Amino acid sequence: MLQDRLKEAQKEALKTGDKERLSTLRLILAAIKNREISLRGDGKGPISDDGIIELLHTMIKQRRESIRLYEQGGRTDLVDKEKSEIAVIEKFLPAQLTAEEINALCAQAVSELEAKGLKDMGRVMSLLKERHAGSMDFNKASAEVRRLLSA
Question: How much is the pTM?
């Protein structure tokens, strides 16, 4: 389970004295704990690995936005900190698919569902999300599916 891997990595960072990695891992585990608490309030069980992966993607997206703002403000010290946090977070994500792989999988999904037009885009994207959650950039996939269905 991904959460167990994160806890083990936290213990390892604590033993080796890697303060930056330890700090980032604590942030991740705190975010997971907060998500579990909110899920419990909704009557749902513990967070799944897919939920953790989604959370990690959100954390990366937040840090990229912070980097953009820090660069505009000339705060290179904070940019470096955000980049190092992204590097730690990315180690726990599945490998991302390349653009070519995304294009091939989109074409496969379109033909498999026999999608004919943009009205079928939701079905195609749903299938892709079901099969490739965490490993596919869905912004790129959405653009490719739109291109395929518009042709």
Answer: 0.73
